[in-house]
Design a protein that fits this description.
single chain; alpha/beta; Rossmann fold; seven-stranded parallel β-sheet; two-stranded parallel ribbon; 18% strand
C-alpha cells in the first residue's frame, strides 16, 4: 500500500497524517516547498507523474478552499480548486484504477430541514455548497466504483493550536476572555477528527466503495456545545449570550441546521462515534494543568 495524501497541510490533512495507522505508507503533498512534502499545485502541476514515480495505489484527496467567505471572494479560483481540477484528477484516478477517498460537506444543504441522509435533496445558497453539489453529482455518475465519497460534518480536534471550533473557544478563555456572543439557532452534528481518521483508515484498508455521511451521533446548537464545555470545566465566570447567527456572521446564507444521519456508515463498518462528553474527558486529561 502506497498512499498519496493531497492537501496534507490543512486541518484534517494534518490530523490524518499524524494519527493514521498507515504513517509509513504515506506521501504528503503541499502547494508550497516544504520539507517532507511533495510539491503539488492542483492547478499547475501534473499529478500523474507523482502517481507513477511513487507507485501510488491509493489517494486521500483533502485539497479544497472550504471557507465559504474565501470561496465567494475568489469565485474563479475556488471553482478551479473545488470543482474543475478535482474532477480532472478523479477522472485520472478512475482511469488508472487507483482507489481514492474524497470529501463533500454538510453545506450542500440549505439548512431548512434537519437529519439529512445521503439521499436527501441538496440545495445551497453558498458558492462553496454549490461547488460540492456539482462534485457530488459528477461522482454519482461514476457509480462509486473504486472510490468513497465522504460528506462530513463540522469537524473538531483536540490540539490546542489547531484553530478548530472548540479549541478556539478554550484558547480565548485561556487569554482571559469571559464574554461570548454565540449562535443559538445554528445546529450541527459535530465530528471528532480522530473518528474521521479511523474511518478513513478502515475504508483504505478494506477498499470500501460508496457514498457516506460522516458526522457525530449528537446534534446541538453552537451555543449548547459551548455551554457543555463551560459546565464540564466549571467555567462559572464565562458568560455566553445566545444570538441569531445572521447577527453574528458576516457571511450571508449560512445554513442553520445541517444535522446529518450517519446510520449508513455505522451499519457498514460497525463504527462507534465518540460522544461529546467523552471528548471533553479527553481534553481534560490532556490540558488539566
Amino acid at each position: 500500500m502506497s498512499i498519496l495524501v493531497v492537501g496534507a497541510t490543512g486541518f484534517i490533512g494534518k490530523y490524518f497524517t499524524k494519527f493514521t495507522k498507515f504513517k509509513s505508507n504515506i506521501y504528503k503533498t503541499s502547494s508550497k516547498n516544504k520539507k517532507g512534502f511533495i510539491k503539488f499545485d492542483i492547478i499547475k502541476d501534473n499529478l500523474e507523474k507523482i502517481l507513477t514515480q511513487k507507485n501510488i495505489t491509493q489517494v486521500v484527496f483533502f485539497s479544497a478552499i472550504s471557507n465559504p467567505k474565501k470561496c465567494s471572494k475568489f469565485p474563479s479560483k475556488s471553482n478551479k480548486i473545488n470543482l474543475i481540477y478535482p474532477k480532472k484528477i478523479f477522472k485520472l484516478l478512475l482511469k488508472k484504477k487507483i482507489f481514492f477517498i474524497c470529501f463533500s460537506s454538510e453545506y450542500v444543504f440549505d439548512g431548512y430541514k434537519k437529519n439529512y441522509r445521503e439521499s436527501s435533496k441538496t440545495n445551497s445558497k453558498l458558492l462553496y455548497g454549490r461547488q460540492k453539489i456539482l462534485l457530488e453529482k459528477y461522482l454519482m455518475k461514476k457509480k462509486f466504483k473504486n472510490f468513497a465519497l465522504l460528506r462530513i460534518a463540522k469537524t473538531y480536534g483536540h490540539i490546542i493550536t489547531d484553530k478548530s471550533i472548540f479549541m478556539n473557544f478554550l484558547q480565548d478563555i485561556k487569554r482571559g476572555k469571559q464574554k461570548f456572543k454565540v449562535a443559538n439557532d445554528q445546529f450541527f452534528s459535530a465530528l471528532y477528527v480522530l473518528d474521521l481518521v479511523k474511518i478513513i483508515d478502515i475504508i483504505l484498508e478494506k477498499r470500501i466503495n460508496g457514498f457516506f455521511n460522516v458526522s457525530g451521533n449528537e446534534t446541538f446548537s453552537r451555543y449548547v456545545y459551548l455551554k457543555k464545555i463551560c459546565n464540564y470545566f466549571n467555567y462559572y465566570n464565562i458568560k455566553l449570550a445566545g444570538e441569531n447567527l445572521n447577527k453574528l456572521s458576516s457571511i450571508n446564507n449560512i445554513p442553520l441546521n445541517v444535522s446529518l444521519k450517519n446510520n449508513k456508515l455505522k451499519n457498514k463498518i460497525n463504527f462507534k462515534f465518540t460522544k461529546f462528553k467523552d471528548y471533553l474527558s479527553i481534553i481534560k486529561a490532556k490540558y488539566e494543568n
